[in-house]
Amino acid sequence: MKAQNSYDKLRGGYYTPIAIADFIVEWAVRSPDDKILEPSCGDGSFLNVLITKTICADAIGVELDPSEAKKAAEYGYPVKNEDFFSYYESEIENKEKYDVILGNPPFIRYQNFDEQYREVAFRLMKAHGFHPNRLTNIWLPFLLLSCEALSDNGRIGMVIPAELFQVDYAAEARNYLSSHFESLTLVTFRKLVFEGIQQEVIILLGEKQSNNKGIRVVELDGLNELIAEEQKCLATAETKHLDHSTDKWVKYYLSNRELEVLRQLNADPRISSASDLYEVNVGLVSGENDFFMLSRDTVEKWGLEDDVMPIIGRSEQVKGIILSSEEHLAIQNEGKRVFLFTPGDIGIEDVSENAKKYIAWGESQQYNANYKCRIRKHWYHVPMSWTADAFLIRQANLYPKIIINSAGALVTDTLHKVRFLSGVNGNAVAAAFLNTYTLALSETLGRSYGGGVLTFEPGEMRRMRIPMIGAENLDITQIDQWQRNGKYKEILAYTDMLLLKEGLGLSDSDISLLHSIWGKMRSRRLSRKQST
Ligand SMILES: C[S@@+](CC[C@H](N)C(=O)[O-])C[C@H]1O[C@@H](n2cnc3c(N)ncnc32)[C@H](O)[C@@H]1O
Questions:
Q1: How far apart are CA 233 and CA 226, in angstroms?
Q2: 14 touches ligand 1 (CB under 6 Å)
Q3: Tens digit of pLDDT for each residue in 212-265?
Q4: 220 φ, ψ to 5°?
Q5: pLDDT at position 3
Protein backbone atom coordinates (compact mmCIF):
# COMPACT_ATOMS: atom_id res chain seq x y z
CA MET A 1 0.00 0.00 0.00
CA LYS A 2 1.20 3.45 -0.88
CA ALA A 3 0.92 6.33 1.58
CA GLN A 4 -1.11 9.02 -0.08
CA ASN A 5 -1.75 11.95 2.14
CA SER A 6 -0.18 14.14 4.71
CA TYR A 7 -1.92 12.23 7.48
CA ASP A 8 -0.06 9.12 6.40
CA LYS A 9 3.11 11.15 6.15
CA LEU A 10 2.75 12.48 9.67
CA ARG A 11 2.19 9.10 11.19
CA GLY A 12 5.02 7.63 9.10
CA GLY A 13 2.55 5.38 7.34
CA TYR A 14 4.65 3.88 4.55
CA TYR A 15 4.13 0.20 4.35
CA THR A 16 6.65 -2.49 3.69
CA PRO A 17 6.70 -4.18 0.28
CA ILE A 18 5.71 -7.79 0.79
CA ALA A 19 9.04 -9.07 -0.58
CA ILE A 20 10.89 -7.32 2.22
CA ALA A 21 8.49 -8.48 4.93
CA ASP A 22 8.83 -11.99 3.58
CA PHE A 23 12.62 -11.79 3.56
CA ILE A 24 12.79 -10.54 7.14
CA VAL A 25 10.34 -13.11 8.51
CA GLU A 26 12.20 -15.92 6.71
CA TRP A 27 15.47 -14.80 8.27
CA ALA A 28 14.28 -13.89 11.75
CA VAL A 29 11.91 -16.69 12.75
CA ARG A 30 13.67 -19.95 13.61
CA SER A 31 11.17 -21.90 15.62
CA PRO A 32 7.39 -22.18 15.91
CA ASP A 33 7.85 -21.40 19.60
CA ASP A 34 9.39 -17.98 18.94
CA LYS A 35 7.74 -15.16 20.77
CA ILE A 36 7.31 -12.31 18.31
CA LEU A 37 6.62 -8.56 18.49
CA GLU A 38 5.73 -6.13 15.66
CA PRO A 39 5.85 -2.70 17.36
CA SER A 40 4.23 -0.58 14.61
CA CYS A 41 2.31 -3.06 12.55
CA GLY A 42 0.29 -0.73 10.28
CA ASP A 43 -2.24 -2.76 8.32
CA GLY A 44 -0.24 -5.87 9.11
CA SER A 45 2.26 -6.61 6.30
CA PHE A 46 4.47 -8.58 8.66
CA LEU A 47 1.62 -10.29 10.49
CA ASN A 48 0.26 -11.36 7.12
CA VAL A 49 3.57 -12.99 6.19
CA LEU A 50 3.88 -14.52 9.65
CA ILE A 51 0.51 -16.22 9.50
CA THR A 52 1.04 -17.37 5.92
CA LYS A 53 4.57 -18.70 6.26
CA THR A 54 5.01 -19.87 9.79
CA ILE A 55 3.06 -21.68 12.40
CA CYS A 56 4.08 -19.32 15.16
CA ALA A 57 1.28 -18.78 17.58
CA ASP A 58 2.88 -16.30 19.91
CA ALA A 59 2.96 -12.99 18.07
CA ILE A 60 1.60 -9.58 18.92
CA GLY A 61 1.30 -6.32 17.03
CA VAL A 62 1.05 -2.72 18.25
CA GLU A 63 -0.40 0.07 16.10
CA LEU A 64 -1.44 3.60 16.94
CA ASP A 65 -3.93 4.16 14.15
CA PRO A 66 -7.29 2.53 15.04
CA SER A 67 -8.44 1.66 11.54
CA GLU A 68 -5.06 0.21 10.58
CA ALA A 69 -4.92 -1.72 13.83
CA LYS A 70 -8.33 -3.20 12.99
CA LYS A 71 -7.13 -4.31 9.56
CA ALA A 72 -3.98 -5.82 11.06
CA ALA A 73 -6.03 -7.74 13.63
CA GLU A 74 -7.77 -9.60 10.81
CA TYR A 75 -4.69 -11.80 10.42
CA GLY A 76 -5.60 -13.40 13.72
CA TYR A 77 -2.86 -12.17 16.05
CA PRO A 78 -3.67 -9.82 18.92
CA VAL A 79 -3.09 -6.19 17.95
CA LYS A 80 -2.86 -3.50 20.62
CA ASN A 81 -4.25 -0.22 19.38
CA GLU A 82 -2.03 2.16 21.30
CA ASP A 83 1.19 4.11 21.30
CA PHE A 84 4.09 1.67 21.28
CA PHE A 85 6.06 3.57 23.91
CA SER A 86 3.18 3.67 26.38
CA TYR A 87 2.61 -0.02 25.74
CA TYR A 88 6.32 -0.63 26.24
CA GLU A 89 6.37 1.21 29.52
CA SER A 90 3.40 -0.60 30.96
CA GLU A 91 3.68 -4.08 29.44
CA ILE A 92 7.23 -4.73 28.25
CA GLU A 93 9.73 -2.83 30.41
CA ASN A 94 11.06 -5.25 33.07
CA LYS A 95 8.35 -7.73 32.12
CA GLU A 96 8.66 -9.22 28.67
CA LYS A 97 11.40 -10.33 26.29
CA TYR A 98 10.90 -11.41 22.70
CA ASP A 99 12.79 -13.91 20.56
CA VAL A 100 11.98 -11.98 17.41
CA ILE A 101 11.13 -8.33 16.85
CA LEU A 102 10.37 -7.25 13.34
CA GLY A 103 8.83 -4.34 11.58
CA ASN A 104 9.24 -1.04 9.87
CA PRO A 105 9.04 1.78 12.39
CA PRO A 106 7.61 5.15 11.39
CA PHE A 107 9.86 7.98 10.29
CA ILE A 108 8.71 11.16 12.08
CA ARG A 109 10.91 14.12 12.92
CA TYR A 110 11.17 15.43 16.46
CA GLN A 111 8.88 18.43 15.88
CA ASN A 112 6.09 16.24 14.44
CA PHE A 113 6.59 13.48 16.99
CA ASP A 114 3.47 13.74 19.18
CA GLU A 115 4.65 15.23 22.45
CA GLN A 116 2.80 12.84 24.74
CA TYR A 117 4.40 9.82 23.04
CA ARG A 118 7.75 11.51 22.64
CA GLU A 119 7.92 12.17 26.33
CA VAL A 120 7.48 8.47 27.13
CA ALA A 121 9.89 7.45 24.36
CA PHE A 122 12.60 9.79 25.63
CA ARG A 123 12.06 8.77 29.23
CA LEU A 124 12.52 5.13 28.27
CA MET A 125 15.56 5.90 26.13
CA LYS A 126 17.20 7.75 29.00
CA ALA A 127 16.40 4.90 31.37
CA HIS A 128 18.34 2.65 28.99
CA GLY A 129 21.32 5.00 28.90
CA PHE A 130 20.65 6.75 25.57
CA HIS A 131 20.77 10.50 24.99
CA PRO A 132 17.91 11.62 22.75
CA ASN A 133 17.84 15.22 21.56
CA ARG A 134 15.85 17.59 19.35
CA LEU A 135 17.10 15.86 16.22
CA THR A 136 16.00 12.42 17.33
CA ASN A 137 13.58 10.92 14.84
CA ILE A 138 10.93 8.51 16.11
CA TRP A 139 12.47 5.50 14.33
CA LEU A 140 15.42 5.64 16.69
CA PRO A 141 13.56 4.90 19.98
CA PHE A 142 11.52 2.27 18.11
CA LEU A 143 14.72 0.55 17.08
CA LEU A 144 16.69 0.93 20.29
CA LEU A 145 13.89 -0.02 22.66
CA SER A 146 13.08 -3.03 20.50
CA CYS A 147 16.72 -4.12 20.75
CA GLU A 148 16.49 -3.80 24.51
CA ALA A 149 13.40 -6.03 24.56
CA LEU A 150 15.11 -8.99 22.86
CA SER A 151 15.76 -12.25 24.67
CA ASP A 152 19.39 -13.38 25.13
CA ASN A 153 19.33 -15.25 21.87
CA GLY A 154 16.94 -12.88 20.13
CA ARG A 155 16.89 -11.58 16.58
CA ILE A 156 15.74 -8.26 15.22
CA GLY A 157 14.82 -7.63 11.60
CA MET A 158 13.79 -4.09 10.78
CA VAL A 159 13.41 -1.72 7.91
CA ILE A 160 15.31 1.40 8.96
CA PRO A 161 16.00 4.72 7.22
CA ALA A 162 19.48 4.68 5.68
CA GLU A 163 20.20 7.80 7.68
CA LEU A 164 21.26 5.38 10.42
CA PHE A 165 24.49 5.30 8.41
CA GLN A 166 24.86 9.01 8.19
CA VAL A 167 23.42 11.28 10.80
CA ASP A 168 25.21 12.46 13.89
CA TYR A 169 22.19 11.91 16.11
CA ALA A 170 22.44 8.18 15.35
CA ALA A 171 26.13 7.93 16.29
CA GLU A 172 25.20 6.57 19.69
CA ALA A 173 22.93 4.02 18.03
CA ARG A 174 25.66 2.86 15.64
CA ASN A 175 27.98 2.33 18.52
CA TYR A 176 25.33 0.54 20.55
CA LEU A 177 24.22 -1.73 17.71
CA SER A 178 27.75 -2.78 16.92
CA SER A 179 28.35 -3.95 20.46
CA HIS A 180 24.84 -5.15 21.37
CA PHE A 181 24.71 -7.71 18.55
CA GLU A 182 27.30 -10.36 17.92
CA SER A 183 26.31 -10.30 14.31
CA LEU A 184 24.84 -7.39 12.41
CA THR A 185 23.92 -7.49 8.73
CA LEU A 186 22.82 -4.44 6.82
CA VAL A 187 21.12 -4.98 3.50
CA THR A 188 21.30 -1.85 1.37
CA PHE A 189 19.71 -0.97 -1.95
CA ARG A 190 21.14 1.10 -4.75
CA LYS A 191 17.63 1.99 -5.88
CA LEU A 192 14.76 3.21 -3.75
CA VAL A 193 12.47 0.38 -2.76
CA PHE A 194 9.47 2.29 -1.45
CA GLU A 195 6.99 3.37 -4.02
CA GLY A 196 6.22 7.06 -4.09
CA ILE A 197 8.60 8.29 -1.40
CA GLN A 198 12.17 9.48 -1.46
CA GLN A 199 13.10 7.51 1.60
CA GLU A 200 16.18 5.41 1.35
CA VAL A 201 15.99 2.40 3.62
CA ILE A 202 18.12 -0.50 4.71
CA ILE A 203 17.20 -3.82 6.27
CA LEU A 204 18.87 -4.31 9.62
CA LEU A 205 19.31 -7.88 10.81
CA GLY A 206 20.75 -8.26 14.29
CA GLU A 207 21.55 -11.43 16.22
CA LYS A 208 22.29 -11.25 19.91
CA GLN A 209 24.26 -14.52 19.70
CA SER A 210 25.98 -15.79 16.61
CA ASN A 211 28.89 -17.90 15.39
CA ASN A 212 29.27 -15.56 12.49
CA LYS A 213 30.48 -12.49 14.37
CA GLY A 214 30.98 -9.02 12.91
CA ILE A 215 29.24 -6.42 10.81
CA ARG A 216 28.42 -7.10 7.20
CA VAL A 217 26.90 -5.13 4.40
CA VAL A 218 25.02 -6.66 1.52
CA GLU A 219 24.51 -4.32 -1.36
CA LEU A 220 21.62 -5.09 -3.67
CA ASP A 221 20.36 -3.32 -6.70
CA GLY A 222 16.73 -3.20 -5.72
CA LEU A 223 13.73 -5.30 -4.81
CA ASN A 224 14.10 -7.56 -7.83
CA GLU A 225 17.47 -8.70 -6.67
CA LEU A 226 16.15 -9.40 -3.20
CA ILE A 227 13.31 -11.45 -4.67
CA ALA A 228 15.66 -13.37 -6.96
CA GLU A 229 18.39 -14.01 -4.40
CA GLU A 230 16.32 -14.44 -1.24
CA GLN A 231 18.43 -15.53 1.75
CA LYS A 232 21.34 -16.46 -0.52
CA CYS A 233 22.28 -12.80 -0.80
CA LEU A 234 23.35 -12.85 2.85
CA ALA A 235 26.17 -15.24 2.06
CA THR A 236 27.97 -12.78 -0.23
CA ALA A 237 28.64 -10.16 2.41
CA GLU A 238 32.17 -9.13 3.30
CA THR A 239 32.89 -8.44 7.00
CA LYS A 240 34.12 -4.90 7.54
CA HIS A 241 36.55 -3.63 10.15
CA LEU A 242 35.66 -0.22 11.38
CA ASP A 243 35.87 1.98 14.36
CA HIS A 244 32.18 1.98 15.13
CA SER A 245 32.23 4.78 17.58
CA THR A 246 33.54 7.38 15.16
CA ASP A 247 33.03 6.22 11.58
CA LYS A 248 29.76 6.75 9.87
CA TRP A 249 28.66 3.44 8.47
CA VAL A 250 28.34 4.83 5.00
CA LYS A 251 31.84 3.50 4.54
CA TYR A 252 30.55 -0.03 4.67
CA TYR A 253 29.94 0.25 0.98
CA LEU A 254 33.68 0.18 0.38
CA SER A 255 35.98 -2.81 0.08
CA ASN A 256 38.51 -3.46 2.82
CA ARG A 257 41.35 -2.31 0.54
CA GLU A 258 39.59 0.94 -0.22
CA LEU A 259 38.87 1.46 3.46
CA GLU A 260 42.52 0.88 4.26
CA VAL A 261 43.72 3.63 1.90
CA LEU A 262 41.14 5.99 3.26
CA ARG A 263 42.05 5.16 6.83
CA GLN A 264 45.76 5.73 6.16
CA LEU A 265 45.13 9.10 4.58
CA ASN A 266 42.71 10.08 7.33
CA ALA A 267 45.50 9.51 9.83
CA ASP A 268 48.25 11.14 7.73
CA PRO A 269 49.51 14.17 9.69
CA ARG A 270 50.81 15.79 6.49
CA ILE A 271 47.22 16.41 5.37
CA SER A 272 45.68 19.54 6.86
CA SER A 273 42.50 19.38 8.88
CA ALA A 274 39.89 21.91 7.90
CA SER A 275 39.93 23.28 11.42
CA ASP A 276 43.57 24.35 10.90
CA LEU A 277 42.60 26.22 7.75
CA TYR A 278 39.20 27.79 8.16
CA GLU A 279 36.20 28.46 10.34
CA VAL A 280 32.83 27.60 8.91
CA ASN A 281 29.39 28.72 9.88
CA VAL A 282 25.89 28.98 8.51
CA GLY A 283 24.86 31.83 6.25
CA LEU A 284 22.20 34.31 7.25
CA VAL A 285 18.48 33.69 7.46
CA SER A 286 16.46 36.63 6.19
CA GLY A 287 13.18 35.37 7.63
CA GLU A 288 11.30 36.65 4.59
CA ASN A 289 13.08 36.49 1.25
CA ASP A 290 10.25 38.28 -0.55
CA PHE A 291 11.01 41.35 1.52
CA PHE A 292 14.74 41.19 2.10
CA MET A 293 16.12 39.74 -1.13
CA LEU A 294 15.92 42.30 -3.90
CA SER A 295 16.72 42.47 -7.59
CA ARG A 296 18.49 45.51 -8.92
CA ASP A 297 15.25 46.78 -10.50
CA THR A 298 13.56 46.74 -7.09
CA VAL A 299 16.52 48.49 -5.49
CA GLU A 300 16.31 51.23 -8.12
CA LYS A 301 12.54 51.47 -7.94
CA TRP A 302 12.65 52.23 -4.23
CA GLY A 303 15.95 54.16 -4.33
CA LEU A 304 17.56 51.77 -1.84
CA GLU A 305 21.11 51.86 -3.23
CA ASP A 306 22.53 52.88 0.16
CA ASP A 307 20.44 50.37 2.09
CA VAL A 308 21.44 47.13 0.41
CA MET A 309 24.44 44.84 0.27
CA PRO A 310 25.33 42.28 -2.41
CA ILE A 311 24.39 38.74 -1.44
CA ILE A 312 24.42 35.27 -2.91
CA GLY A 313 21.26 33.29 -2.34
CA ARG A 314 21.74 30.14 -4.39
CA SER A 315 24.70 27.93 -5.07
CA GLU A 316 23.82 27.64 -8.79
CA GLN A 317 24.45 31.36 -9.09
CA VAL A 318 28.18 30.75 -8.75
CA LYS A 319 29.56 28.48 -11.42
CA GLY A 320 33.27 28.60 -10.66
CA ILE A 321 35.37 28.69 -7.52
CA ILE A 322 35.86 32.46 -7.51
CA LEU A 323 33.02 34.95 -7.18
CA SER A 324 34.27 38.26 -8.58
CA SER A 325 32.47 41.61 -8.49
CA GLU A 326 32.06 41.32 -12.28
CA GLU A 327 30.31 38.00 -11.91
CA HIS A 328 28.04 39.44 -9.25
CA LEU A 329 27.22 42.26 -11.65
CA ALA A 330 26.42 39.70 -14.34
CA ILE A 331 24.05 37.92 -11.94
CA GLN A 332 22.40 41.25 -11.14
CA ASN A 333 21.96 41.82 -14.88
CA GLU A 334 20.05 38.55 -15.12
CA GLY A 335 17.48 40.09 -12.77
CA LYS A 336 18.31 37.77 -9.88
CA ARG A 337 17.59 38.89 -6.31
CA VAL A 338 21.15 39.34 -5.16
CA PHE A 339 20.80 42.34 -2.85
CA LEU A 340 19.95 42.15 0.82
CA PHE A 341 17.97 44.97 2.37
CA THR A 342 20.11 46.14 5.30
CA PRO A 343 19.00 49.51 6.65
CA GLY A 344 20.99 48.84 9.86
CA ASP A 345 20.15 47.70 13.37
CA ILE A 346 18.77 51.14 14.20
CA GLY A 347 15.45 52.66 15.20
CA ILE A 348 12.96 53.55 12.48
CA GLU A 349 13.56 57.27 13.08
CA ASP A 350 17.21 56.83 12.05
CA VAL A 351 16.82 54.87 8.81
CA SER A 352 16.90 56.64 5.45
CA GLU A 353 13.67 58.10 4.06
CA ASN A 354 13.48 55.56 1.24
CA ALA A 355 14.16 52.68 3.61
CA LYS A 356 11.39 54.00 5.86
CA LYS A 357 8.94 53.84 2.95
CA TYR A 358 10.08 50.35 2.06
CA ILE A 359 9.72 49.18 5.67
CA ALA A 360 6.23 50.69 5.82
CA TRP A 361 5.33 48.77 2.66
CA GLY A 362 6.73 45.60 4.28
CA GLU A 363 4.52 46.18 7.30
CA SER A 364 1.49 46.65 5.07
CA GLN A 365 2.28 43.16 3.73
CA GLN A 366 2.64 41.96 7.36
CA TYR A 367 6.17 40.67 6.86
CA ASN A 368 6.97 42.04 10.32
CA ALA A 369 4.59 39.47 11.80
CA ASN A 370 6.72 36.54 10.64
CA TYR A 371 8.20 34.67 13.55
CA LYS A 372 11.83 35.23 12.54
CA CYS A 373 11.22 38.96 12.04
CA ARG A 374 9.05 39.38 15.09
CA ILE A 375 11.70 38.19 17.54
CA ARG A 376 14.30 40.71 16.34
CA LYS A 377 14.96 44.00 18.06
CA HIS A 378 14.25 45.74 14.75
CA TRP A 379 12.26 43.39 12.55
CA TYR A 380 13.79 44.83 9.36
CA HIS A 381 17.36 44.14 10.39
CA VAL A 382 18.71 40.71 9.50
CA PRO A 383 21.32 39.73 12.09
CA MET A 384 24.69 38.95 10.59
CA SER A 385 28.14 38.24 11.95
CA TRP A 386 31.40 38.22 10.03
CA THR A 387 31.63 38.59 6.25
CA ALA A 388 32.81 35.47 4.54
CA ASP A 389 36.20 35.11 2.85
CA ALA A 390 34.65 32.25 0.95
CA PHE A 391 31.55 30.09 0.71
CA LEU A 392 31.15 26.37 1.00
CA ILE A 393 28.50 24.50 -0.90
CA ARG A 394 25.97 23.13 1.51
CA GLN A 395 24.13 20.90 -0.92
CA ALA A 396 26.25 19.40 -3.63
CA ASN A 397 25.14 17.50 -6.65
CA LEU A 398 28.43 16.20 -8.03
CA TYR A 399 30.81 17.48 -5.35
CA PRO A 400 31.23 20.30 -2.83
CA LYS A 401 33.57 23.22 -3.46
CA ILE A 402 34.93 26.33 -1.78
CA ILE A 403 34.17 29.59 -3.59
CA ILE A 404 36.43 32.56 -2.94
CA ASN A 405 34.32 35.63 -2.18
CA SER A 406 36.17 38.34 -4.11
CA ALA A 407 32.89 40.25 -4.46
CA GLY A 408 32.60 40.82 -0.70
CA ALA A 409 29.06 39.45 -0.87
CA LEU A 410 26.91 38.22 2.00
CA VAL A 411 25.42 34.78 1.80
CA THR A 412 22.16 33.14 2.83
CA ASP A 413 22.04 29.82 4.61
CA THR A 414 21.81 27.93 1.32
CA LEU A 415 25.61 28.10 1.48
CA HIS A 416 28.01 28.17 4.41
CA LYS A 417 30.37 30.99 5.30
CA VAL A 418 34.08 30.38 5.50
CA ARG A 419 36.71 32.51 7.22
CA PHE A 420 40.33 31.50 6.70
CA LEU A 421 42.53 31.43 9.76
CA SER A 422 45.25 34.01 9.88
CA GLY A 423 48.25 33.20 7.69
CA VAL A 424 46.27 30.73 5.56
CA ASN A 425 46.33 31.24 1.79
CA GLY A 426 42.61 31.01 0.98
CA ASN A 427 43.09 30.68 -2.77
CA ALA A 428 45.37 27.70 -2.23
CA VAL A 429 42.78 26.07 0.05
CA ALA A 430 39.94 26.57 -2.46
CA ALA A 431 42.11 25.20 -5.27
CA ALA A 432 43.40 22.24 -3.26
CA PHE A 433 39.94 21.34 -1.97
CA LEU A 434 39.14 19.84 -5.36
CA ASN A 435 41.29 16.71 -5.24
CA THR A 436 40.13 13.12 -5.31
CA TYR A 437 40.99 12.33 -1.68
CA THR A 438 39.03 15.29 -0.27
CA LEU A 439 36.09 14.58 -2.57
CA ALA A 440 36.08 10.88 -1.62
CA LEU A 441 36.19 11.89 2.04
CA SER A 442 33.35 14.35 1.48
CA GLU A 443 31.10 11.47 0.37
CA THR A 444 31.73 9.74 3.69
CA LEU A 445 31.21 12.89 5.76
CA GLY A 446 28.17 14.44 4.09
CA ARG A 447 24.74 12.91 4.20
CA SER A 448 22.48 12.18 1.35
CA TYR A 449 18.78 11.69 1.39
CA GLY A 450 16.56 10.14 -1.22
CA GLY A 451 17.03 12.94 -3.75
CA GLY A 452 20.69 12.12 -4.27
CA VAL A 453 22.03 15.49 -3.11
CA LEU A 454 24.99 15.47 -0.71
CA THR A 455 24.35 17.79 2.24
CA PHE A 456 26.87 19.23 4.69
CA GLU A 457 26.29 20.96 7.97
CA PRO A 458 29.12 23.13 9.32
CA GLY A 459 30.23 20.31 11.65
CA GLU A 460 30.87 18.04 8.70
CA MET A 461 32.73 20.73 6.82
CA ARG A 462 34.97 21.17 9.84
CA ARG A 463 35.96 17.53 9.59
CA MET A 464 37.10 17.85 5.99
CA ARG A 465 40.80 17.27 5.26
CA ILE A 466 42.81 18.91 2.52
CA PRO A 467 46.30 17.98 1.29
CA MET A 468 48.07 21.35 1.24
CA ILE A 469 51.67 20.38 0.39
CA GLY A 470 52.29 22.05 -2.98
CA ALA A 471 48.89 23.79 -2.95
CA GLU A 472 50.36 27.27 -3.29
CA ASN A 473 51.63 26.26 -6.75
CA LEU A 474 48.13 25.52 -8.03
CA ASP A 475 46.77 27.90 -10.63
CA ILE A 476 43.36 28.83 -9.21
CA THR A 477 42.34 30.78 -12.32
CA GLN A 478 42.86 27.70 -14.44
CA ILE A 479 40.87 25.53 -11.99
CA ASP A 480 38.11 28.14 -11.92
CA GLN A 481 37.91 28.04 -15.72
CA TRP A 482 37.76 24.25 -15.81
CA GLN A 483 35.11 24.29 -13.12
CA ARG A 484 32.98 26.71 -15.14
CA ASN A 485 33.23 24.42 -18.14
CA GLY A 486 32.36 21.27 -16.23
CA LYS A 487 35.84 19.83 -16.74
CA TYR A 488 36.28 18.23 -13.36
CA LYS A 489 38.38 15.40 -14.73
CA GLU A 490 40.99 17.94 -15.86
CA ILE A 491 40.88 19.56 -12.42
CA LEU A 492 41.44 16.29 -10.62
CA ALA A 493 44.18 15.08 -12.97
CA TYR A 494 46.01 18.34 -12.24
CA THR A 495 45.45 18.57 -8.48
CA ASP A 496 45.99 14.85 -7.86
CA MET A 497 49.33 15.03 -9.65
CA LEU A 498 50.52 18.04 -7.66
CA LEU A 499 49.03 17.29 -4.25
CA LEU A 500 48.62 13.53 -3.98
CA LYS A 501 51.45 12.23 -6.15
CA GLU A 502 54.14 14.89 -5.79
CA GLY A 503 53.04 16.35 -2.46
CA LEU A 504 52.25 13.15 -0.56
CA GLY A 505 54.06 10.59 -2.70
CA LEU A 506 50.97 8.41 -3.31
CA SER A 507 51.31 5.70 -5.94
CA ASP A 508 49.19 5.66 -9.08
CA SER A 509 47.37 2.62 -7.77
CA ASP A 510 46.46 4.39 -4.51
CA ILE A 511 45.19 7.34 -6.50
CA SER A 512 43.11 5.09 -8.68
CA LEU A 513 41.69 3.43 -5.55
CA LEU A 514 40.64 6.88 -4.37
CA HIS A 515 38.97 7.42 -7.73
CA SER A 516 37.11 4.18 -7.33
CA ILE A 517 35.99 5.09 -3.79
CA TRP A 518 34.77 8.46 -4.91
CA GLY A 519 33.12 7.09 -8.06
CA LYS A 520 31.40 4.28 -6.17
CA MET A 521 29.96 6.45 -3.45
CA ARG A 522 28.99 9.28 -5.73
CA SER A 523 27.23 7.13 -8.29
CA ARG A 524 25.49 5.17 -5.56
CA ARG A 525 24.13 8.40 -4.20
CA LEU A 526 23.23 9.87 -7.59
CA SER A 527 21.57 6.67 -8.82
CA ARG A 528 18.87 7.18 -6.21
CA LYS A 529 17.61 10.15 -8.15
CA GLN A 530 16.33 8.24 -11.12
CA SER A 531 15.53 4.97 -9.39
CA THR A 532 12.04 3.68 -8.83
C1 LIG B 1 6.24 2.75 8.29
S2 LIG B 1 4.66 2.24 8.85
C3 LIG B 1 4.95 0.55 8.90
C4 LIG B 1 3.79 -0.32 9.04
C5 LIG B 1 4.09 -1.81 9.01
N6 LIG B 1 5.03 -2.18 10.06
C7 LIG B 1 4.66 -2.21 7.68
O8 LIG B 1 5.85 -2.49 7.65
O9 LIG B 1 3.95 -2.26 6.68
C10 LIG B 1 4.70 2.81 10.49
C11 LIG B 1 3.44 2.60 11.30
O12 LIG B 1 3.69 3.08 12.62
C13 LIG B 1 2.49 3.61 13.14
N14 LIG B 1 2.84 4.47 14.29
C15 LIG B 1 3.22 5.77 14.28
N16 LIG B 1 3.47 6.20 15.53
C17 LIG B 1 3.26 5.14 16.35
C18 LIG B 1 3.34 4.95 17.76
N19 LIG B 1 3.71 5.97 18.55
N20 LIG B 1 3.06 3.74 18.25
C21 LIG B 1 2.67 2.71 17.45
N22 LIG B 1 2.55 2.83 16.11
C23 LIG B 1 2.85 4.03 15.57
C24 LIG B 1 1.88 4.32 11.95
O25 LIG B 1 0.49 4.52 12.12
C26 LIG B 1 2.22 3.35 10.81
O27 LIG B 1 1.18 2.47 10.58
A1: 7
A2: yes
A3: 877 888 888 888 888 888 888 888 766 665 555 555 666 667 777 888 899 899
A4: -115, 160
A5: 43
41-44: long-range contacts at Cβ-Cβ below 8 A with a sequence spacing of 24 or more? 41/68, 41/69, 41/72, 41/79, 41/103, 42/13, 42/15, 42/16, 42/68, 42/72, 42/104, 43/1, 43/15, 43/68, 43/71, 43/72, 44/68, 44/71, 44/72, 44/73, 44/74, 44/75, 44/79
Which residue owns the Cα nearest ligand 1 atom 10? 106
**Strands of the sheet with 415-420, listed across from one edge:** 278-282, 415-420, 390-393, 402-405, 322-323
For residue 106 and ligand 1, the question of a CB distance below 6 A is answered with yes
Pairing verdict, β 201-207 and 183-189: antiparallel
| Cα 324 from chain centre | 31
Report pLDDT digits (tens) over 375-408: 999 999 998 888 899 999 999 999 999 999 999 9
Bridge partners of residue 37, in order along the sequence:
60, 101
How far apart are alpha carbons 245 and 504 in whole angstroms?
A: 28
102 ligand 1 Cβ < 6 A: no
What's the 115 CA to ligand 1 centre distance in angstroms?
A: 16
Whose CA is closest to atom 26 on ligand 1? Answer: 13
Task: Give the nearest ligand 1 atom to 117 CA.
Answer: 19
Stated pTM of the model: 0.67
